[in-house]
Amino acid sequence: MIRAEHLDIDGAVGFAELSGDGVPLLCIHSAGQSGVQWRAVLRELPAHGYRVIVPDLPGHGRSDNPCSGPVRDLGDYATWLGELLLELGVERPLIAGCSIGGKIALELAADPAVAPRAVVAMAADARNSRLSVRALERSLEDTASPSRADRTYLGTLACVGRSVPAERAAAIAAMHRREDPVVSTLDLIGWTEHDLRSRLAAIACPVRLVAGEDDFWIDPDDVAWAAERIPDCSYDRLPGVGHYPMEEIEGFPELLAGWLRDLIANALTPARTDRRAGR
Amino acid sequence: MNARSLEENKLRGLFYEDFRVGQRFDSAARTITAEDLRDFTRLSGDAAAIHSDAAHARSLGFEGPVVHGPLAIAAVFGLLFESGLVEPTAIGMLDLDWRFAAPVVAGDELRYELTVTRCRRSRSRQAGVVGRHFRVLNGDGATVQEGTSSLLVRAREPAGDPDPAIRTDFCSPAWAKALSAELAANRDFADATRLFDGSIGLQAGAELVQLRVYRGALLETARSTPAGPTFTVAGSELAWTSLALAERNDFIARATLGEFSASGSAYDYLRLTKAVVAIWDSVRALAAGGGDR
């Protein structure tokens, strides 16, 4: 059964869906989107022994904006998620995230107060160089950002992988068109400005970085760079997949369950722990 | 590559009709030796220290004496001759536009990847012009030089009318005319330009054409319009060739990565994103019909 929670976080409503019992798994959505991206995981991962927690970040989906207004710092989202976990009484969760959600997952992984068991970060790098903050700031002004809906729709189609059937790609793009342009744009500014490079070495849990080969928002070399600097990290490139693996891949929940199984097994292997301690 | 396999790989000179936009020809590799560098220095008279003095070249941060840029160009056209692609059908090289991306030093191995980016019949003789893009790579696979050059090449047959190659003669007047027939049936283009009164410039390399649009209808295609283009979408001939023949229309990804750029009214360009993507659908449909010549 899927349950909804309306949590009070800093005086504003934070919305999250929960399903299952077992090892907690926090799933973080991408810029401008909502927990709906994790719908299949929410439905199917409980059968693998997980308690799935899918929040809408502040200003997204059914969560209020913070009292201070929309967020432009990914660190604020990480803090908010820390409070959400506290409210829910969740300790040491597994975390999966995509795009800004992947970067926030890495941010949480570097935070000893959260200390996740393991992280799957998709379409995430330590620092992104493909967007211009100046251009994004200009497009915060509605008069300077015409045909926003078309551009979101067509832009999403272009970054969905070539293996995705046209009908599914169109459904993903139509869902993404529901965004609030201000919130989305601020998310992208946050993504571009957030620099995790100096903190990668502080990540103490096993990490799996995942990038789609058709994802033009991500430079594969940047992800490889991050993978080399995270102490316990593997890196997968997915052929035919773009920026949103959890929406694009038929059977993604099974794939994620396999990744999590491997990460947990690694986290529990004494040899691996010793090796990490020796670094 | 030994002499025998080189012989086997030799093509007989291609005629104009044998070329297609999007064709790729990759060369064998050749090492530029210290002796080559000395010979070229003597032949050209360019004995600048960077080419002849190892200590000086190293003081500038290079691994050794830097090969003259034009020596690498000469080697490219030597490899092209070796390939058998141009002999005996080539009449003459018409132009050269070249960029030096990274230094080549003696001992480097060079090869090229050639992509055909334009085919156009000559009006005055039994021949045609073939536009070629060269990417020159070193032994590590890094691009060291890049450029374009067109070749006048003999045709087997006198010009037929119309030449099917106009379907990929991007941004030429004949191509624009063929494109307008595709666009007339493109509903997305009509819908997206319903509130537009202006001209959309399309530029492939140096070739520029405008689509004069009023309320969803394409009024005219022309090299110039009285008020000029509202905005222009430009890319190299290689960029046009790649997207026109790609597996899918990912114009937005390519524009984001800088393969295409826009000038003129940025606002109208953004406003007409859907129309521009629709134009590319028609460009691709036209190009896809071009393989049956």
Structure description:
- With 279 residues, chain A is α/β, with parallel strands linked by helices.
- Chain A has helices spanning 39-44, 74-88, 100-109, 133-138, 148-159, 166-176, 181-193, 220-229, 245-248, 252-268, 270-277, and strands at 2-9, 12-19, 23-28, 50-55, 94-98, 118-122, 207-212, 233-238.
- Chain A has one domain (2-277): Alpha/Beta hydrolase fold, catalytic domain (Rossmann fold, 3-Layer(aba) Sandwich).
- Chain A is built from 11 helices and 8 strands.
- In chain A, helix 1 (39-44) links the parallel strand 3 and strand 4 (50-55).
- The longest helix of chain A has 17 residues, at 252-268.
- The termini of chain A are far apart.
- Mean pLDDT of chain B is 93; it is low at 1-9.
- In chain B, helix 6 (173-184) packs across helix 11.
- Chain B is globular, with a radius of gyration of 22 Å.
- Chain B has helices at residues 3-9, 34-44, 49-52, 54-59, 69-83, 173-184, 187-192, 237-245, 251-256, 266-271, 273-288, and strands spanning 24-26, 30-31, 90-93, 97-100, 109-121, 127-137, 143-154, 197-204, 207-214, 217-222, 231-235, 260-264.
- Helices cover 33% and strands 28% of the residues of chain B.
- Classes of the chains: A alpha/beta (279), B alpha+beta (293).
- At the A-B interface, helix 5 of A face helix 9, helix 10 and helix 11 of B.
Architecture blueprint of SSEs:
The complex is a heterodimer of chains A (279) and B (293).
Chain A lengths: L1 E8 L2 E8 L3 E6 L10 H6 L5 E6 L18 H15 L5 E5 L1 H10 L8 E5 L10 H6 L9 H12 L6 H11 L4 H13 L13 E6 L7 H10 L3 E6 L6 H4 L3 H17 L1 H8 L2
Parallel strand pairs in A: 3-4, 3-5, 5-6, 6-7, 7-8
Antiparallel strand pairs in A: 1-2, 2-4
Chain B lengths: L2 H7 L14 E3 L3 E2 L2 H11 L4 H4 L1 H6 L9 H15 L6 E4 L3 E4 L8 E13 L5 E11 L5 E12 L18 H12 L2 H6 L4 E8 L2 E8 L2 E6 L8 E5 L1 H9 L5 H6 L3 E5 L1 H6 L1 H16 L5
Parallel strand pairs in B: 8-11
Antiparallel strand pairs in B: 1-5, 2-5, 3-7, 4-7, 5-6, 6-7, 8-9, 9-10, 11-12
